[in-house]
Amino acid sequence: MSDLDYRQLSEADLRNYVKTHPQDEDAFQYFLSIMRAKPNRVVVSTGEQLEAEIRKRIDKENSTEE
């Protein structure tokens, strides 16, 4: 690991750091902890899952407007 304090980076900078330093497990785990702590986070692996999640959110939004 370098002397860089990844805990001081913005989320976007940390994401880029993790992408360019895949060997830095501590930084990666810290990044994961930030992502997991976000409310309403959704993890999808496929385009189909993404489409289903978007449709679900649109349907929910439309039902609250009525």
Give the topology, please.
Layout (H helix, E strand, L loop, with lengths): L10 H10 L4 H13 L9 H19 L1
In short:
The radius of gyration is 17 Å and the shape is elongated.
Write up what this structure looks like.
- There is one protein chain.
- With 66 residues, the protein is mainly α.
- The protein has one domain (6-65).
- The chain is built from three helices and no strands.
State the separation between the terminal residues, measured CA to CA. 54 Å
Tell me, what's the shape? elongated
What is the C-alpha radius of gyration, as a whole number of Å? 17 Å
Sheet with most strands: none
Indicate how many domains the architecture comprises: 1
- The helix/strand class is mainly alpha
Which strand-content bin applies to the residues? under 5%
Unreliable spans: none
According to DSSP, the number of beta strands is 0
Mean pLDDT: 90
Total helix count? Answer: 3
Helix coverage percent: 55-70%
Compressed to H and E, one letter per element, the order equals HHH
